[in-house]
Amino acid sequence: MEGSDLLSWRKRNRNRTRPAGEEPGWVDALNWRAILVVTGVAAACAVVVLSLGLALDRPVRRVLVQGAFQRVSPPEIESAVAEIARGGVASVDLEKIRARVEMIAWVDSVVVNRQWPDALRVLVVEQVAAARWNDTGLLNARGELFIRSARFVPPELPLLEGPDGSESVVAQLYLDAQGRLLEAGLRLTGVRLDERGAWELQLDNGLAVRLGRQAVTDRLDRFIRLASPMVAKRIAEISYVDMRYTNGFSVGWNGRSALAVAPQEDATPDA
Predict the structure, then answer these.
(1) pLDDT tens across 143-189, in order?
(2) CA atoms within 13 A on the CB side of 235
(3) What is the three-class DSSP state of 53?
(4) Rounded percentage of the chain residues whose pLDDT exceeds 70
(5) How far is the C-alpha of 91 from the C-alpha of 88, rounded, in Å?
(6) How many CA atoms lie within 13 A of 43 on its CB side?
(7) Which CATH architecture is the domain 131-266 placed in?
(8) DSSP 77-123
């Protein structure tokens, strides 16, 4: 029924005589003019929104790559974006693009934004290698293994070693010990956790500090408090310091037998 016919029908029926006591029906109670107005406005808004969406959803024609690059190339990022960005600028899935770019080696974090009318802006932050891991791996400053087999491993980075899955634990001990040893005049260049769970520190002249498997934090504290002053003065003469004693430690001298700095009853190191 057209709008004009509906209004005419309403006028004819408005004058119809109702029996005494009869209540108006729900159809009579409706404000048909208001309903028609609201429906028309809603339809017009829908058309406007649809038209605007189609106008904004232009094909992605440009990818603007930003960042300080040393290990990652912008064309590599553009190629990764092109794999995902096959729709328009408005409808493209930014989260999928971010996840795809973060799969590229040496990429740490990614932010993707729309750049109207036809571009995407991709801000990339590269990984920063903070330590070597075992033979060919690289760790970032958070202790995360981000490359397992690097083609080039910077030799100046500290060497952290341990079983698979222990990266964050080994990195944490390195961070805990590094600053404290530096204050004592010693430079830490490596931390090793073996398969048995025994810890060993490596200093810059090759000197090893054996911490063992038990009370590792206490033994590190005792090394810094008791042994490090002597080690700092005579580091060129010392091969290792063994802290696996209850109350003392032993020193291995280059070309000489070890000297135990511990009570006689404590002459055997613990685990």
Answers:
(1) 999 999 999 999 999 999 999 999 999 999 999 999 999 999 999 99
(2) 17
(3) helix
(4) 75
(5) 5
(6) 6
(7) 3-Layer(aba) Sandwich (3.40)
(8) HHHHHHHH--SBTTTS-HHHHHHHHTTSTTEEEEEEEEETTTEEEEE
Cis peptide before 117 (omega within 30 of 0): yes
Q: State how far the Cα of 118 lies from the Cα of 22, in Å rounded to an integer.
A: 64
Residue 140 has which token pair? Answer: 């970032």
Amino acid at 29: A
Q: Where are the domains of the chain?
A: 23-56, 62-126, 131-266
pLDDT band for position 49 (50/70/90)? very low
pLDDT band at 58 (very low <50, low <70, confident <90, very high): confident
Phi, psi torsion values for 142, nearest 5 degrees: -90, 5
Euclidean distance between CA atoms 218 and 190, whole angstroms: 19
The residues pairing with 188 across neighbouring beta strands, listed in sequence order, are 203
Note whether 62-126 and 131-266 share their fold.
Answer: no
Helix (H, G, I), strand (E, B) or coil at 209: strand
How many C-beta atoms lie closer than 10 Å to residue 268's C-beta?
A: 10
Q: Quickly list DSSP for 147-159.
A: ESS-S---TTSPE
62-126 CATH:
3.10.20.310
The answer to whether 137 and 164 are in contact (CB under 8 A) is no
Residue 191 near residue 160 (C-beta atoms within 8 A): yes
The Cα 268–Cα 124 span in angstroms is: 54
- Record the pTM: 0.73
Q: Is 229 helix (H, G, I), strand (E, B) or coil?
A: helix
Q: What distance in Å separates the CA atoms of residue 144 and residue 107, rounded to the nearest whole number?
A: 13
Residues 247-261 have a mean pLDDT of 77
